[in-house]
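U., I forgot to send this yesterday:
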Amino acid sequence: MTDVVIIGAGFGGLSAARALAEAPDPSLQVTLIDRHVYSTFQPLLYQVATGGLNPGDVAYPIRSFARHHGVRYRHGRVQGIDAEGRRVLLADGSSVPYDYLVVAVGADVNYFGVPGAAEHAVALYTRAEAIDLRDALMGALERLASSPSRQATVVVVGGGPTGVEMAGTLAELRSALQSAFPSEDPASVRVVLVEQTPQLLGPFAARLRSYALRQLERRGVDVRLSTGITEVGPDHVRLSDGTELPAQLTVWAAGVAVDPSVSAWGLPQGPGGRIRTGPDFRVDGQERIFAVGDVAADPDRPLAQLAQPAIQAGRHAGRQIARLVSGRDTEPFTYHDKGIMATIGRRAAVVQLPTGVQVTGTPAWLAWLALHIVLLLGGRNRASALLNLSARYLVWPASLIVGDIRDPD
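Result:
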């Protein structure tokens, strides 16, 4: 029996597990390790945070995935890797032996050393953070309703797809406020998007970036380009130009970084802490350890820290392990660009295909909606997400999925 252990049940880890499950070699025994009991569909976390989806819509039980694909699941937090002894060390003191290992732990929030960001901003990278953000948002709206003289300002940091999608959805929520808070003026909720570079959605074509900016401004979002954040406080943010903005809620969507705990695993790391790999995703200096997704990078050909690169990398790593087990050499990875997309809000999205085709407006929005529904794991999740998103975008006034109200610290 050949034991293959995969650390992480994100896009890369699940893709590797699928590839190994499809391998013709019956001697492969795959074990999937993750600290959570579910896999999170991160591209739709902002919908959970803004009350459009239930947390369960974007979470799929790892045990269900494991049973369906004939792999094992081990719940645990990885503390280290014993490469010489071929063991994954867990925080509870136990270990899991391996013949081949795939590291696919993803990444964590990157606060770029901004004072107060980790303490006072709310990130949007995990299911728990999305729930926390939703509760903070609902709490801010309730406090606004009880204090009509106040204004509520939400600052979104980061002009990538997550920041743009979050800002656009928050702006649209203002129009639905009067159904839940009939005494409130939607203008009392201000949404500010701050981006350090001169443009939104950097990887997209100029026409699509301009479209996204126009759509956000049309929805009343105050977009601040070429502007950094120098401090985040409990009720304000300070900008690089010296301006201080009041902020009842600060959403951090400015980027990701490798979890610092990975540095203790003894694997070589490059820029940003990403594990250095070769073109076949084997870790430098290791014959039996692969690394894929946000946590890894080939220094000569780094991939973007996005879902599609992680999916393709995980699939490739799984297939290379199957090749090694069968006595064949590995093959270098070739990325197949399938395009990129982002949504701004109702009937507004941008799609850029590798052929050069660029789509905006309702067709792009429908394509974005369909793709994200299809990519969700589990029929129940797809059905529930479709129902909830239909209620958000097709029914007026839209209702919100609420949770607890988080009071300010």
